[in-house]
Amino acid sequence: MSAPIVPNLLRDHLSDLAMNDARLDGRGQYQGREIKLETGILPRAEGSARVTMGNTIVLAGVKFQLMTPYPDRPNQGGLMCSCEVRPIAGRHWEAGPPSPESIELGRVVDRGIRESGCIDVDDLCIIPGEKAWQVILDLHAISDDGNLFDAFALAGIAALRSAIIPAEKFEVGQDSPLKVSKKPIMCSYHKVGGRFVYDASYKEELGGDERIHITLGDDDHVHSLQKGLKGIFTADEFADIMEHAKKRCAELRELMD
Amino acid sequence: MGGYGDVQMIDENGLRMDGRKPGDVRPITIETGVVPVADGSCRMVWGTNEAIVAVYGPMEAHPRKIQRQDRAVIDVAYNMAPFSTTDRIRPGFNRRSREISKVTKDALESVVLLELYPRSKIRVSIEIISAEAGTRCVGLTAASVALADAGIPMTDMVVSVASGKVNDVVVCDLNKEEDNYGEADLPMGILPNTGELVFLQMDGDLSPDEFKQAWDYNVDAAMQVHKLMVEALKGGAN
Protein backbone atom coordinates (compact mmCIF):
# COMPACT_ATOMS: atom_id res chain seq x y z
CA MET A 1 0.00 0.00 0.00
CA SER A 2 1.37 3.38 -0.92
CA ALA A 3 1.25 5.75 2.03
CA PRO A 4 -1.98 7.71 1.62
CA ILE A 5 -1.82 11.46 2.09
CA VAL A 6 -4.04 12.35 5.02
CA PRO A 7 -5.18 15.94 4.77
CA ASN A 8 -5.33 17.69 8.10
CA LEU A 9 -8.70 18.96 6.96
CA LEU A 10 -10.11 15.42 7.15
CA ARG A 11 -8.67 14.89 10.64
CA ASP A 12 -10.05 18.23 11.81
CA HIS A 13 -13.43 17.46 10.36
CA LEU A 14 -13.52 14.06 12.08
CA SER A 15 -12.57 15.72 15.39
CA ASP A 16 -15.36 18.28 15.01
CA LEU A 17 -17.85 15.51 14.27
CA ALA A 18 -16.68 13.49 17.28
CA MET A 19 -17.19 16.49 19.53
CA ASN A 20 -20.83 16.59 18.50
CA ASP A 21 -21.13 12.80 18.83
CA ALA A 22 -21.59 12.48 15.05
CA ARG A 23 -19.94 10.50 12.25
CA LEU A 24 -19.29 11.13 8.55
CA ASP A 25 -22.18 8.96 7.40
CA GLY A 26 -24.55 9.88 10.22
CA ARG A 27 -24.09 6.74 12.29
CA GLY A 28 -23.88 6.65 16.07
CA GLN A 29 -20.57 5.92 17.82
CA TYR A 30 -21.21 2.19 18.15
CA GLN A 31 -23.60 1.77 15.25
CA GLY A 32 -22.47 -0.68 12.56
CA ARG A 33 -23.37 -0.61 8.90
CA GLU A 34 -26.04 -2.93 7.59
CA ILE A 35 -24.66 -6.43 7.10
CA LYS A 36 -25.67 -8.90 4.42
CA LEU A 37 -24.39 -12.46 4.76
CA GLU A 38 -24.78 -15.01 1.95
CA THR A 39 -23.38 -18.54 1.94
CA GLY A 40 -22.84 -21.17 -0.76
CA ILE A 41 -22.08 -18.56 -3.41
CA LEU A 42 -18.87 -19.99 -4.94
CA PRO A 43 -19.45 -23.03 -7.18
CA ARG A 44 -15.84 -24.31 -7.01
CA ALA A 45 -15.33 -23.94 -3.26
CA GLU A 46 -16.35 -26.57 -0.69
CA GLY A 47 -17.72 -23.82 1.53
CA SER A 48 -18.19 -20.12 0.84
CA ALA A 49 -19.63 -16.85 2.02
CA ARG A 50 -20.00 -13.26 0.89
CA VAL A 51 -20.29 -10.43 3.41
CA THR A 52 -21.50 -6.99 2.40
CA MET A 53 -21.14 -4.23 5.01
CA GLY A 54 -22.13 -0.97 3.40
CA ASN A 55 -19.67 -0.61 0.50
CA THR A 56 -17.25 -3.17 1.91
CA ILE A 57 -17.57 -6.54 0.15
CA VAL A 58 -15.51 -9.66 0.85
CA LEU A 59 -15.57 -13.31 -0.18
CA ALA A 60 -14.42 -16.35 1.74
CA GLY A 61 -13.82 -19.75 0.19
CA VAL A 62 -12.93 -23.06 1.86
CA LYS A 63 -10.87 -25.71 0.07
CA PHE A 64 -9.58 -29.06 1.38
CA GLN A 65 -6.29 -30.82 0.70
CA LEU A 66 -4.81 -34.05 1.96
CA MET A 67 -1.72 -33.65 4.11
CA THR A 68 0.70 -35.82 6.02
CA PRO A 69 0.30 -34.99 9.73
CA TYR A 70 3.30 -33.37 11.40
CA PRO A 71 5.49 -35.95 13.16
CA ASP A 72 4.89 -34.39 16.59
CA ARG A 73 1.10 -34.35 16.05
CA PRO A 74 0.31 -37.54 14.13
CA ASN A 75 -3.41 -37.39 15.01
CA GLN A 76 -4.09 -33.88 13.78
CA GLY A 77 -5.05 -32.23 10.55
CA GLY A 78 -4.48 -28.58 9.83
CA LEU A 79 -6.24 -25.27 9.43
CA MET A 80 -4.74 -22.54 7.29
CA CYS A 81 -6.14 -19.09 6.81
CA SER A 82 -4.83 -16.96 4.00
CA CYS A 83 -5.84 -13.44 3.14
CA GLU A 84 -5.27 -11.49 -0.02
CA VAL A 85 -6.20 -7.91 -0.65
CA ARG A 86 -5.60 -7.42 -4.34
CA PRO A 87 -5.78 -4.16 -6.29
CA ILE A 88 -9.42 -4.78 -7.20
CA ALA A 89 -10.46 -3.80 -3.66
CA GLY A 90 -9.49 -0.15 -3.77
CA ARG A 91 -7.12 2.38 -5.28
CA HIS A 92 -4.95 2.27 -2.15
CA TRP A 93 -4.22 -1.46 -2.57
CA GLU A 94 -1.47 -2.32 -5.02
CA ALA A 95 -0.26 -5.45 -6.76
CA GLY A 96 2.85 -7.22 -5.60
CA PRO A 97 3.90 -9.34 -2.66
CA PRO A 98 1.49 -9.22 0.32
CA SER A 99 1.83 -5.95 2.22
CA PRO A 100 2.35 -5.95 6.01
CA GLU A 101 -1.22 -4.64 6.29
CA SER A 102 -2.74 -7.61 4.49
CA ILE A 103 -0.54 -10.07 6.40
CA GLU A 104 -1.70 -8.58 9.70
CA LEU A 105 -5.30 -8.85 8.50
CA GLY A 106 -4.96 -12.54 7.67
CA ARG A 107 -3.15 -13.41 10.86
CA VAL A 108 -5.56 -11.63 13.19
CA VAL A 109 -8.57 -13.28 11.54
CA ASP A 110 -6.75 -16.63 11.63
CA ARG A 111 -6.01 -16.36 15.36
CA GLY A 112 -9.62 -15.60 16.24
CA ILE A 113 -10.89 -18.67 14.41
CA ARG A 114 -8.04 -20.99 15.40
CA GLU A 115 -7.89 -20.10 19.11
CA SER A 116 -11.63 -20.42 19.59
CA GLY A 117 -11.13 -24.12 18.95
CA CYS A 118 -14.21 -24.15 16.71
CA ILE A 119 -12.50 -26.67 14.46
CA ASP A 120 -11.30 -29.81 16.16
CA VAL A 121 -8.04 -30.67 14.37
CA ASP A 122 -8.15 -34.21 15.81
CA ASP A 123 -11.34 -34.68 13.86
CA LEU A 124 -9.48 -33.96 10.62
CA CYS A 125 -7.24 -36.99 10.92
CA ILE A 126 -8.00 -39.81 8.47
CA ILE A 127 -5.13 -42.27 9.11
CA PRO A 128 -2.89 -41.32 12.09
CA GLY A 129 0.61 -40.40 10.95
CA GLU A 130 -0.31 -40.80 7.30
CA LYS A 131 -3.29 -38.85 6.10
CA ALA A 132 -5.26 -35.90 7.39
CA TRP A 133 -7.32 -33.03 6.04
CA GLN A 134 -5.91 -29.60 5.68
CA VAL A 135 -8.68 -27.00 5.72
CA ILE A 136 -7.74 -23.88 3.80
CA LEU A 137 -9.75 -20.73 4.27
CA ASP A 138 -9.05 -18.10 1.63
CA LEU A 139 -10.25 -14.57 2.25
CA HIS A 140 -10.58 -12.31 -0.76
CA ALA A 141 -11.53 -8.64 -0.67
CA ILE A 142 -13.67 -7.26 -3.50
CA SER A 143 -14.37 -3.73 -2.28
CA ASP A 144 -12.67 -2.03 0.69
CA ASP A 145 -14.64 0.77 2.30
CA GLY A 146 -13.14 0.11 5.70
CA ASN A 147 -13.19 -2.60 8.38
CA LEU A 148 -12.05 -5.53 6.25
CA PHE A 149 -11.15 -7.23 9.56
CA ASP A 150 -14.72 -7.78 10.74
CA ALA A 151 -15.96 -8.58 7.25
CA PHE A 152 -13.25 -11.22 6.76
CA ALA A 153 -13.81 -12.76 10.18
CA LEU A 154 -17.57 -13.04 9.64
CA ALA A 155 -17.23 -14.38 6.08
CA GLY A 156 -14.56 -16.80 7.27
CA ILE A 157 -16.55 -18.46 10.04
CA ALA A 158 -19.70 -18.50 7.89
CA ALA A 159 -17.82 -20.17 5.01
CA LEU A 160 -16.35 -22.81 7.36
CA ARG A 161 -19.82 -23.52 8.77
CA SER A 162 -21.12 -24.14 5.24
CA ALA A 163 -18.22 -26.39 4.19
CA ILE A 164 -18.55 -30.00 3.07
CA ILE A 165 -15.48 -32.27 3.31
CA PRO A 166 -15.05 -33.64 -0.25
CA ALA A 167 -14.03 -37.15 0.82
CA GLU A 168 -15.51 -38.78 -2.28
CA LYS A 169 -13.40 -36.66 -4.62
CA PHE A 170 -10.24 -37.77 -2.79
CA GLU A 171 -11.54 -41.34 -2.42
CA VAL A 172 -11.25 -41.44 1.38
CA GLY A 173 -14.85 -42.07 2.42
CA GLN A 174 -18.10 -40.20 2.21
CA ASP A 175 -18.68 -36.47 1.99
CA SER A 176 -19.69 -34.92 5.29
CA PRO A 177 -20.15 -31.43 6.68
CA LEU A 178 -17.13 -29.89 8.39
CA LYS A 179 -17.77 -29.79 12.15
CA VAL A 180 -17.60 -26.23 13.44
CA SER A 181 -18.52 -26.20 17.11
CA LYS A 182 -18.30 -22.48 17.94
CA LYS A 183 -18.98 -19.09 16.45
CA PRO A 184 -16.07 -16.71 17.08
CA ILE A 185 -16.95 -13.15 16.08
CA MET A 186 -14.65 -10.17 15.67
CA CYS A 187 -15.54 -6.59 16.53
CA SER A 188 -13.20 -3.79 15.52
CA TYR A 189 -12.94 -0.29 16.94
CA HIS A 190 -11.05 2.65 15.52
CA LYS A 191 -9.98 5.80 17.35
CA VAL A 192 -11.46 8.58 15.24
CA GLY A 193 -11.43 12.20 16.37
CA GLY A 194 -10.29 11.16 19.84
CA ARG A 195 -12.87 8.45 20.60
CA PHE A 196 -13.39 4.87 19.58
CA VAL A 197 -16.05 4.11 16.98
CA TYR A 198 -17.29 0.69 15.88
CA ASP A 199 -17.05 -0.47 12.22
CA ALA A 200 -15.04 2.44 10.79
CA SER A 201 -15.41 3.34 7.13
CA TYR A 202 -12.35 3.81 4.91
CA LYS A 203 -12.35 7.59 5.40
CA GLU A 204 -12.53 7.16 9.16
CA GLU A 205 -9.63 4.70 9.00
CA LEU A 206 -7.68 7.18 6.89
CA GLY A 207 -8.19 10.08 9.28
CA GLY A 208 -8.11 8.00 12.45
CA ASP A 209 -5.48 6.71 14.87
CA GLU A 210 -5.13 3.31 16.50
CA ARG A 211 -7.53 0.43 16.15
CA ILE A 212 -8.44 -2.48 18.41
CA HIS A 213 -9.77 -5.85 17.32
CA ILE A 214 -11.55 -8.17 19.72
CA THR A 215 -12.65 -11.71 18.90
CA LEU A 216 -15.16 -13.24 21.29
CA GLY A 217 -16.33 -16.81 21.21
CA ASP A 218 -19.47 -18.39 22.62
CA ASP A 219 -20.00 -17.38 26.30
CA ASP A 220 -17.99 -14.20 25.65
CA HIS A 221 -14.66 -15.94 25.98
CA VAL A 222 -11.87 -13.79 24.54
CA HIS A 223 -9.95 -15.52 21.76
CA SER A 224 -7.87 -12.84 20.13
CA LEU A 225 -6.94 -9.22 20.60
CA GLN A 226 -4.90 -6.93 18.45
CA LYS A 227 -3.97 -3.30 18.76
CA GLY A 228 -2.88 -1.82 15.45
CA LEU A 229 -1.39 1.49 14.29
CA LYS A 230 0.10 4.34 16.28
CA GLY A 231 -1.86 5.55 19.30
CA ILE A 232 -2.45 5.32 23.03
CA PHE A 233 -5.60 4.13 24.80
CA THR A 234 -6.71 3.85 28.41
CA ALA A 235 -8.02 0.88 30.36
CA ASP A 236 -11.39 2.63 30.69
CA GLU A 237 -11.66 3.07 26.94
CA PHE A 238 -10.92 -0.61 26.52
CA ALA A 239 -13.52 -1.60 29.10
CA ASP A 240 -16.11 0.45 27.22
CA ILE A 241 -15.53 -1.17 23.86
CA MET A 242 -15.33 -4.61 25.44
CA GLU A 243 -18.78 -4.03 26.90
CA HIS A 244 -20.10 -3.11 23.45
CA ALA A 245 -18.29 -6.01 21.77
CA LYS A 246 -20.10 -8.51 23.99
CA LYS A 247 -23.49 -7.19 22.90
CA ARG A 248 -22.57 -6.87 19.25
CA CYS A 249 -21.01 -10.34 19.01
CA ALA A 250 -24.20 -11.88 20.37
CA GLU A 251 -26.23 -10.10 17.69
CA LEU A 252 -23.90 -11.23 14.91
CA ARG A 253 -23.95 -14.78 16.17
CA GLU A 254 -27.70 -14.76 15.71
CA LEU A 255 -27.31 -13.41 12.18
CA MET A 256 -25.45 -16.59 11.27
CA ASP A 257 -28.25 -19.00 12.16
CA MET B 1 -4.94 -29.61 -25.13
CA GLY B 2 -5.27 -33.05 -23.69
CA GLY B 3 -5.83 -34.80 -27.00
CA TYR B 4 -7.79 -37.65 -25.42
CA GLY B 5 -9.59 -38.67 -28.60
CA ASP B 6 -11.52 -41.44 -26.86
CA VAL B 7 -13.55 -39.12 -24.61
CA GLN B 8 -16.95 -38.83 -26.27
CA MET B 9 -18.14 -35.24 -26.05
CA ILE B 10 -20.63 -35.01 -28.93
CA ASP B 11 -23.67 -37.33 -28.86
CA GLU B 12 -25.41 -39.04 -31.78
CA ASN B 13 -27.71 -36.03 -32.25
CA GLY B 14 -24.74 -33.71 -32.61
CA LEU B 15 -25.33 -32.16 -29.18
CA ARG B 16 -22.61 -31.36 -26.65
CA MET B 17 -22.38 -32.68 -23.07
CA ASP B 18 -24.14 -29.60 -21.71
CA GLY B 19 -26.91 -29.88 -24.34
CA ARG B 20 -25.65 -27.09 -26.58
CA LYS B 21 -25.49 -27.20 -30.36
CA PRO B 22 -21.96 -26.70 -31.79
CA GLY B 23 -22.49 -22.98 -32.43
CA ASP B 24 -24.20 -22.13 -29.10
CA VAL B 25 -22.75 -19.87 -26.41
CA ARG B 26 -23.16 -20.62 -22.69
CA PRO B 27 -25.69 -18.47 -20.76
CA ILE B 28 -24.30 -15.06 -19.80
CA THR B 29 -25.34 -12.48 -17.24
CA ILE B 30 -23.68 -9.08 -16.88
CA GLU B 31 -23.96 -6.60 -14.02
CA THR B 32 -22.22 -3.25 -13.58
CA GLY B 33 -21.38 -1.21 -10.48
CA VAL B 34 -20.57 -4.30 -8.39
CA VAL B 35 -17.45 -2.81 -6.76
CA PRO B 36 -18.84 0.32 -5.09
CA VAL B 37 -15.46 1.90 -4.34
CA ALA B 38 -14.20 1.58 -7.95
CA ASP B 39 -14.65 4.08 -10.79
CA GLY B 40 -16.19 1.37 -12.93
CA SER B 41 -16.85 -2.33 -12.44
CA CYS B 42 -18.49 -5.39 -13.91
CA ARG B 43 -19.49 -8.87 -12.83
CA MET B 44 -19.81 -11.31 -15.69
CA VAL B 45 -21.17 -14.81 -15.17
CA TRP B 46 -20.53 -16.90 -18.28
CA GLY B 47 -21.54 -20.54 -17.87
CA THR B 48 -20.05 -21.23 -14.44
CA ASN B 49 -17.21 -18.76 -15.02
CA GLU B 50 -17.45 -15.68 -12.87
CA ALA B 51 -15.21 -12.65 -13.28
CA ILE B 52 -15.30 -9.42 -11.30
CA VAL B 53 -13.45 -6.48 -12.82
CA ALA B 54 -12.77 -3.08 -11.25
CA VAL B 55 -11.39 -0.04 -13.06
CA TYR B 56 -9.58 2.77 -11.21
CA GLY B 57 -8.48 5.94 -12.93
CA PRO B 58 -7.26 7.65 -14.96
CA MET B 59 -4.94 8.41 -12.04
CA GLU B 60 -1.35 9.41 -11.42
CA ALA B 61 1.04 6.90 -12.93
CA HIS B 62 3.64 5.71 -10.50
CA PRO B 63 6.35 4.57 -10.32
CA ARG B 64 7.29 7.43 -12.60
CA LYS B 65 9.24 5.28 -15.00
CA ILE B 66 6.02 3.77 -16.36
CA GLN B 67 4.66 7.22 -17.36
CA ARG B 68 4.31 8.10 -21.02
CA GLN B 69 4.43 11.79 -21.90
CA ASP B 70 1.93 11.49 -24.75
CA ARG B 71 -0.58 8.93 -23.47
CA ALA B 72 -1.97 6.91 -20.58
CA VAL B 73 -0.85 3.40 -19.73
CA ILE B 74 -3.18 0.59 -18.76
CA ASP B 75 -2.11 -1.61 -15.87
CA VAL B 76 -3.90 -4.95 -16.08
CA ALA B 77 -3.76 -7.51 -13.28
CA TYR B 78 -5.50 -10.80 -14.10
CA ASN B 79 -5.74 -13.16 -11.15
CA MET B 80 -7.51 -16.38 -10.33
CA ALA B 81 -8.83 -16.53 -6.77
CA PRO B 82 -7.46 -19.50 -4.79
CA PHE B 83 -10.96 -21.00 -4.57
CA SER B 84 -11.85 -20.50 -8.24
CA THR B 85 -10.89 -24.00 -9.41
CA THR B 86 -11.39 -27.62 -8.37
CA ASP B 87 -7.87 -27.79 -6.91
CA ARG B 88 -6.86 -24.75 -4.89
CA ILE B 89 -4.48 -22.33 -6.59
CA ARG B 90 -1.61 -21.00 -4.49
CA PRO B 91 -1.90 -17.21 -4.32
CA GLY B 92 0.69 -15.06 -6.03
CA PHE B 93 1.96 -14.38 -9.48
CA ASN B 94 2.57 -17.15 -11.95
CA ARG B 95 3.63 -17.23 -15.60
CA ARG B 96 0.15 -17.94 -16.88
CA SER B 97 -1.50 -15.00 -15.15
CA ARG B 98 1.36 -12.71 -16.23
CA GLU B 99 0.89 -13.67 -19.87
CA ILE B 100 -2.88 -13.23 -19.72
CA SER B 101 -2.47 -9.84 -18.01
CA LYS B 102 -0.14 -8.79 -20.80
CA VAL B 103 -2.28 -9.87 -23.77
CA THR B 104 -5.34 -8.33 -22.08
CA LYS B 105 -3.46 -5.06 -21.64
CA ASP B 106 -2.35 -5.18 -25.29
CA ALA B 107 -5.97 -5.67 -26.38
CA LEU B 108 -7.39 -2.89 -24.20
CA GLU B 109 -4.64 -0.40 -25.10
CA SER B 110 -5.74 -0.89 -28.72
CA VAL B 111 -9.23 0.52 -28.07
CA VAL B 112 -8.94 3.01 -25.20
CA LEU B 113 -8.26 6.62 -26.32
CA LEU B 114 -5.03 6.76 -24.34
CA GLU B 115 -3.84 10.06 -25.82
CA LEU B 116 -6.58 11.85 -23.89
CA TYR B 117 -4.81 11.14 -20.59
CA PRO B 118 -1.06 11.75 -20.94
CA ARG B 119 1.18 10.71 -18.00
CA SER B 120 -1.65 8.86 -16.29
CA LYS B 121 -2.52 5.27 -15.51
CA ILE B 122 -5.75 3.32 -15.79
CA ARG B 123 -5.84 0.30 -13.52
CA VAL B 124 -7.86 -2.75 -14.56
CA SER B 125 -8.12 -5.53 -11.97
CA ILE B 126 -9.58 -8.81 -13.16
CA GLU B 127 -10.45 -11.37 -10.50
CA ILE B 128 -11.65 -14.79 -11.60
CA ILE B 129 -13.92 -15.94 -8.78
CA SER B 130 -15.02 -19.15 -10.44
CA ALA B 131 -13.34 -20.78 -13.43
CA GLU B 132 -14.82 -23.15 -15.96
CA ALA B 133 -12.94 -22.55 -19.25
CA GLY B 134 -12.25 -19.44 -21.24
CA THR B 135 -11.49 -17.21 -18.25
CA ARG B 136 -9.19 -14.98 -20.30
CA CYS B 137 -12.11 -14.28 -22.67
CA VAL B 138 -14.51 -13.56 -19.81
CA GLY B 139 -11.91 -11.35 -18.12
CA LEU B 140 -11.22 -9.30 -21.24
CA THR B 141 -14.90 -8.92 -22.13
CA ALA B 142 -15.82 -7.94 -18.57
CA ALA B 143 -12.89 -5.48 -18.52
CA SER B 144 -14.37 -3.72 -21.57
CA VAL B 145 -17.70 -3.35 -19.78
CA ALA B 146 -16.00 -2.07 -16.63
CA LEU B 147 -14.03 0.51 -18.65
CA ALA B 148 -17.26 1.67 -20.28
CA ASP B 149 -18.91 1.76 -16.83
CA ALA B 150 -16.04 4.00 -15.67
CA GLY B 151 -16.78 6.35 -18.57
CA ILE B 152 -13.39 5.87 -20.20
CA PRO B 153 -13.54 6.73 -23.93
CA MET B 154 -12.91 3.80 -26.27
CA THR B 155 -13.28 3.30 -30.00
CA ASP B 156 -15.19 0.09 -29.29
CA MET B 157 -15.63 -2.56 -26.62
CA VAL B 158 -13.68 -5.79 -27.01
CA VAL B 159 -15.75 -8.98 -27.06
CA SER B 160 -13.72 -12.10 -26.55
CA VAL B 161 -14.86 -15.64 -27.34
CA ALA B 162 -13.03 -18.94 -27.86
CA SER B 163 -14.01 -21.69 -30.27
CA GLY B 164 -12.27 -24.99 -30.72
CA LYS B 165 -12.58 -28.59 -31.77
CA VAL B 166 -13.74 -31.71 -29.93
CA ASN B 167 -14.13 -35.18 -31.45
CA ASP B 168 -13.34 -33.57 -34.84
CA VAL B 169 -16.34 -31.23 -34.53
CA VAL B 170 -15.77 -27.47 -34.40
CA VAL B 171 -17.63 -26.00 -31.41
CA CYS B 172 -18.14 -22.49 -30.10
CA ASP B 173 -17.34 -21.33 -26.54
CA LEU B 174 -15.60 -24.38 -25.07
CA ASN B 175 -16.64 -25.61 -21.64
CA LYS B 176 -14.29 -27.25 -19.14
CA GLU B 177 -14.28 -30.80 -20.51
CA GLU B 178 -14.06 -29.57 -24.09
CA ASP B 179 -11.14 -27.36 -23.16
CA ASN B 180 -9.36 -30.15 -21.26
CA TYR B 181 -9.88 -32.97 -23.74
CA GLY B 182 -10.49 -31.09 -26.98
CA GLU B 183 -8.14 -30.83 -29.91
CA ALA B 184 -7.94 -27.07 -30.42
CA ASP B 185 -8.69 -23.71 -28.83
CA LEU B 186 -8.94 -20.40 -30.68
CA PRO B 187 -9.66 -17.39 -28.45
CA MET B 188 -10.24 -14.07 -30.25
CA GLY B 189 -10.94 -10.49 -29.19
CA ILE B 190 -13.29 -8.84 -31.65
CA LEU B 191 -14.46 -5.24 -32.06
CA PRO B 192 -18.15 -5.72 -32.88
CA ASN B 193 -18.63 -2.42 -34.70
CA THR B 194 -15.91 -2.99 -37.28
CA GLY B 195 -15.16 -6.71 -37.09
CA GLU B 196 -11.51 -5.89 -36.38
CA LEU B 197 -9.39 -7.96 -33.97
CA VAL B 198 -7.26 -6.89 -31.03
CA PHE B 199 -6.58 -10.24 -29.40
CA LEU B 200 -5.76 -13.60 -30.95
CA GLN B 201 -4.29 -16.81 -29.61
CA MET B 202 -4.54 -20.40 -30.71
CA ASP B 203 -3.23 -23.78 -29.79
CA GLY B 204 -4.03 -27.24 -31.06
CA ASP B 205 -4.71 -28.58 -34.50
CA LEU B 206 -7.22 -27.17 -37.02
CA SER B 207 -7.53 -27.75 -40.78
CA PRO B 208 -8.06 -24.65 -42.95
CA ASP B 209 -11.81 -25.39 -43.15
CA GLU B 210 -12.10 -26.00 -39.41
CA PHE B 211 -10.16 -22.82 -38.74
CA LYS B 212 -12.60 -20.84 -40.91
CA GLN B 213 -15.57 -22.38 -39.07
CA ALA B 214 -14.11 -21.62 -35.63
CA TRP B 215 -13.37 -18.06 -36.72
CA ASP B 216 -16.94 -17.56 -37.98
CA TYR B 217 -18.41 -19.01 -34.77
CA ASN B 218 -16.37 -16.53 -32.73
CA VAL B 219 -17.52 -13.56 -34.80
CA ASP B 220 -21.19 -14.58 -34.57
CA ALA B 221 -20.93 -15.22 -30.83
CA ALA B 222 -19.23 -11.86 -30.29
CA MET B 223 -22.18 -10.07 -31.88
CA GLN B 224 -24.60 -11.87 -29.52
CA VAL B 225 -22.51 -11.14 -26.44
CA HIS B 226 -22.10 -7.51 -27.50
CA LYS B 227 -25.88 -7.01 -27.34
CA LEU B 228 -25.91 -8.23 -23.72
CA MET B 229 -23.02 -5.90 -22.84
CA VAL B 230 -24.83 -2.89 -24.27
CA GLU B 231 -28.03 -3.86 -22.44
CA ALA B 232 -26.17 -4.18 -19.13
CA LEU B 233 -24.58 -0.77 -19.56
CA LYS B 234 -27.87 0.88 -20.49
CA GLY B 235 -29.53 -0.74 -17.49
CA GLY B 236 -26.77 0.60 -15.25
CA ALA B 237 -27.42 4.15 -16.41
CA ASN B 238 -31.07 4.10 -15.35
Residue stretches of chain B low in confidence (pLDDT < 50, at least 5 long) are: none
Integer tally of domains of chain B? 1
CATH architecture designation of chain B = 2-Layer Sandwich
| CATH-defined superfamily of chain B | GHMP Kinase, N-terminal domain
- Total helical elements of chain B: 4
The CATH class name of chain A reads Alpha Beta
Largest sheet of chain B: 5 strands, mixed
Class from helix and strand fractions of chain B: alpha+beta
Give the total of beta strands of chain B: 10
Instruction: Determine the mean pLDDT of chain B.
Output: 93
Give the overall shape of chain A, derived from the CA principal axes. Answer: elongated
Structural features, described:
With 257 residues, chain A is an alpha+beta fold. Chain A is 26% helix and 30% strand. In chain A, strand 1 (35-39) and strand 2 (47-53) form a beta hairpin. In chain A, helix 2 packs across helix 3. Chain A is elongated and about 60 Å long. The mean pLDDT of chain A is 93. The radius of gyration of chain B is 18 Å and the shape is globular. Chain A binds chain B through residues 2, 42-45, 48, 55, 57, 59, 61-63, 65, 82, 84, 86-91, 95, 97, 136, 138, 140, 142-145, 202, and chain B through 34-38, 48, 50, 52-54, 56-57, 59, 62, 75, 77, 79, 81-88, 91-92, 123, 125-127, 129-131.
Q: Which key terms come to mind for this protein?
A:
heterodimer, A: 257 residues, alpha+beta, Ribosomal Protein S5, domain 2, six-stranded mixed β-sheet, four-stranded antiparallel β-sheet, elongated, B: 238 residues, five-stranded mixed β-sheet, five-stranded antiparallel β-sheet, 10 strands, globular
